[in-house]
């Protein structure tokens, strides 16, 4: 017997339905019965909700918007979102319907939801239609609570701004500390937008919705509102029937209109920015009127705007409740100034014209920026990205720029603000007029021509001057060589003979102190002194013949330092310890000589002057450097007072500097001394 394709599909669907029924029955058998309240679903953890537990809940639909695939259910215990597939959804109820929803739980993106099985729409049965029940009244403080999500609520707020976004009406609101927006989803006709609600107190009812991040955290609250009937205006007690016409320069004076005064201003439009507002030229100067209301204003339109004054960065602005074109006047002409004159608060938002030198042109995210200079004042012109494209402009040209002056202040927290920077907002490419291109005789070309003339003149007597320079250079080098050699011999004598004599002196002092009580020890010190005399004599001979230090002629750097420290501390009053870090390697003769002399000087100072009883000599070999450090626990000294005093410290610095290294001396009275010399290898 053959099977048709339709028959096979029907059998497969019946089997799948039987499997679903068995799964739901198994959940009931395991104690996971059908959930019948929204509060139970919301109480589930995301992991538990993701298990797809069966749900059957009755309630009303406080908000339904099929184009936006948004459906909420409230059963009296709580509100919950009903997740519908993007395509192929089931039956959609309307706001106010009594419905019964059958499906399973889902984790949702912010809170648990109700969804259908296997990506299908949940089953929705309409039981009737009733008026929506009274919403829960919440305060501004409560509105920010995350668990308010999906609740049918009512809140009193102040509408800050009215916007229209792709057919949707958006009310930017403030309720206590909570900033939120109320969304009336369209498409709605532009004439339905309640522009006069701007800066007005209202009572709004809707479903609390949430903007959240990928970590299931709330980032902002908004309300889904069914219609404009759910936004009720609350008249201000102090609102006047007819706002008073005022000058722009009267706003926010000590005795002028403040933020609670509904006022009217009148002026000529100099620049309209749809969706944001417009600049007006009024009897009291330039004024920015902020409004998202579409007003058919162009430069020259006479505009009246009603609204409330608000403080601005350099000058008050007007947040408009409504604006309208009441006539047409002459196209406004810019006021001509020098840039330094415009830097005054009274010219903020004014349409101005300035002549300047073009320094640079660059393009960014905001549009095209011109760097300009008028005498000593540097300022910028900005043409917005949507306002057009400027032609190629050559730096160095003289130009005239027309636009709206926008001033910023350097003293944001000073009582009297100081005007600091000027930006001229251009309206179109036509607001830039090139007066003249850079002249041929630019500064650069004048310099090049002068350089060529000077080069020709120099060539005439270059031979004699070169000869004289060579003679002077030879004399200078000879003199520097003499000075360098003198310095080298001075360091060698100080670091060899002086240190040797110091060591002999220390040994003889020990002989004097011990000859009467411990003649044997005195004899050892005397023998040591004799050996030091022999070494010093040989060192003197080698110094005269410009040879390496005697100690390095017989051993490496570490051994030479260790021997010198042992001879210096033979009396036992001071303990000298040597540490080596890294892998020792041969150094150049100059490097070994410099480090030995620095180590001898530091050891001698520590043993003779510091009063220490312990000295550590540390050699550290890096990949391309070597560091010698001598530390003692003596009395220390003030390094600042010793700078430039004493040949020993000066000689250390000169030796290190000659080899491109660095020297540090760290010491404070009572805290010991650390001398560290680092040379590149």
Written overview of the protein:
The protein is built from twelve helices and 32 strands. The chain is of the alpha+beta class.
Write the SSE topology.
Layout: H1 5-29, H2 38-42, H3 46-49, E1 54-60, E2 64-65, E3 70-74, E4 79-81, E5 97-106, E6 113-115, E7 123-129, E8 136-137, H4 140-143, E9 152-165, E10 168-175, E11 178-184, E12 200-212, E13 218-224, E14 231-233, E15 244-245, E16 263-273, E17 277-282, E18 285-290, E19 301-310, E20 317-328, E21 335-336, H5 339-342, E22 351-364, E23 367-374, E24 377-384, E25 398-409, E26 419-426, E27 432-436, H6 443-514, H7 519-544, H8 550-554, H9 557-568, E28 575-581, H10 589-609, E29 614-621, E30 625-632, H11 639-642, H12 647-658, E31 662-667, E32 673-680
Parallel strand pairs: 8-9, 11-13, 15-16, 18-20, 21-22, 24-26, 28-29
Antiparallel strand pairs: 1-5, 2-3, 3-4, 5-6, 5-7, 9-10, 9-12, 10-11, 12-13, 12-14, 16-17, 16-19, 17-18, 19-20, 22-23, 22-25, 23-24, 25-26, 25-27, 29-30, 30-32, 31-32
Helix pairs in contact: 6-7, 6-10, 9-10, 10-12
What are its keywords?
681 residues; single chain; 12 helices; five-stranded mixed barrel; alpha+beta
Number of helices: 12
Radius of gyration: 45 Å
Which sequence of strands runs across the widest sheet? 9-10-11-13-12
Helical coverage, percent range: 25-40%
Tell me the span between the first and last alpha carbons.
95 Å
- Biggest sheet, in brief? 5 strands, mixed, barrel
Shape: flat
Low-confidence stretches: 17-31
Number of strands: 32
Mean pLDDT: 84
Query: Which structural class do the helices and strands define?
Result: alpha+beta
Proportion of residues in extended strands: 25-35%
């Amino acid at each position: 017997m053959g099977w048709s394709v339709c028959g096979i599909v029907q059998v497969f669907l019946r089997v799948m339905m039987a499997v679903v029924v068995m799964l739901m029955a198994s959940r009931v058998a395991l104690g996971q019965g059908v959930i019948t309240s929204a509060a139970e679903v919301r109480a589930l953890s995301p992991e538990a909700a993701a298990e797809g537990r069966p749900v059957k809940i009755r309630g009303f639909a406080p908000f339904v918007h099929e184009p936006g695939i948004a459906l909420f259910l409230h059963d009296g215990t709580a509100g919950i979102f009903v997740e519908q597939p993007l395509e192929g959804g089931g039956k959609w109820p309307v706001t106010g319907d009594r419905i019964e929803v059958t499906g399973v739980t889902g984790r949702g993106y912010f809170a648990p939801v109700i969804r259908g099985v296997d990506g299908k729409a949940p089953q929705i049965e309409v039981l009737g239609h009733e008026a929506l029940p009274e919403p829960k009244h919440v305060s501004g403080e409560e509105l920010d609570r995350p668990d308010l999500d999906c609740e049918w609520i009512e809140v009193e707020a102040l509408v800050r701004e009215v916007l229209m976004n792709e057919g949707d009406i958006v009310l930017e609101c403030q309720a206590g500390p909570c900033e939120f927006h109320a969304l009336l989803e369209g498409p709605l006709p532009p004439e339905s937008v309640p522009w006069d609600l701007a800066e007005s107190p209202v009572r709004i009812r809707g479903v609390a919705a949430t903007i959240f991040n990928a970590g299931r955290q709330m980032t902002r609250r908004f309300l889904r509102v069914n219609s404009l009937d759910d936004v009720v205006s609350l008249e201000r007690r102090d609102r006047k029937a007819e706002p008073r016409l005022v000058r722009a320069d009267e706003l926010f004076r000590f005795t002028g209109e403040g933020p609670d005064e509904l006022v009217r201003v009148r002026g000529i439009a100099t620049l309209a920015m749809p969706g944001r507002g417009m600049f007006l030229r009024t009897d009291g100067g330039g004024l920015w009127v902020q409004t998202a209301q579409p007003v058919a204003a162009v430069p020259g339109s006479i505009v009246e705007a009603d609204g409330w004054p608000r403080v601005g960065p350099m000058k008050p602005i007007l947040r408009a409740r409504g604006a309208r074109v009441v006539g047409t006047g002459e196209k406004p002409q810019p006021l001509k100034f020098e840039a330094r004159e415009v830097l005054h608060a009274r010219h903020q938002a004014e349409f101005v014209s300035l002549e300047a030198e073009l320094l640079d042109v660059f393009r960014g995210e905001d549009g095209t920026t011109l760097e300009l200079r008028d005498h000593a004042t540097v300022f910028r012109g900005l043409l917005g990205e949507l306002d057009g494209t400027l032609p190629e402009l050559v730096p160095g040209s003289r130009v005239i720029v027309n636009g709206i002056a926008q001033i910023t202040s350097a003293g944001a927290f000073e009582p009297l603000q100081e005007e600091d920077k000027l930006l001229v907002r251009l309206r179109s490419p036509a607001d830039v007029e090139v007066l003249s291109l850079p002249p041929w005789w630019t500064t650069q070309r004048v310099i090049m021509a002068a350089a060529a003339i000077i080069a020709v003149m120099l060539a005439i007597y270059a031979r004699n001057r070169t000869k004289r320079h060579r003679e002077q250079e030879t004399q200078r080098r000879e003199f520097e060589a003499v000075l360098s050699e003198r310095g080298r011999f001075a360091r060698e004598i100080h670091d060899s003979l002086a240190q040797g004599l110091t060591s002999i002196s220390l040994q003889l002092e020990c002989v004097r102190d011990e000859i009467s009580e411990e003649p044997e020890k005195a004899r050892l010190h005397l023998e040591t002194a004799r050996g030091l005399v022999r070494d010093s004599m040989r060192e003197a001979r080698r110094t005269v013949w410009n040879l390496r230090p005697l100690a390095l002629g017989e051993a490496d750097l570490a051994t030479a330092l260790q021997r010198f420290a042992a001879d210096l501390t033979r009396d036992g009053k001071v303990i000298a310890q040597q540490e080596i870090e890294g892998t020792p390697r041969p150094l150049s003769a100059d490097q070994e000589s410099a480090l030995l002399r620095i180590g001898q000087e530091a050891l001698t100072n520590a043993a003779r002057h510091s009063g220490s009883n312990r000295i550590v000599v540390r050699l550290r070999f890096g990949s391309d450097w070597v560091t010698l450090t001598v530390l003692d626990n003596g009395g220390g000294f003030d390094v600042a007072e010793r700078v430039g005093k004493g040949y020993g410290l000066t000689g250390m610095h000169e030796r290190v500097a000659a080899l491109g290294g660095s020297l540090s001396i760290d010491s404070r009275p009572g805290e010991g001394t650390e001398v560290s010399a680092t040379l590149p290898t």
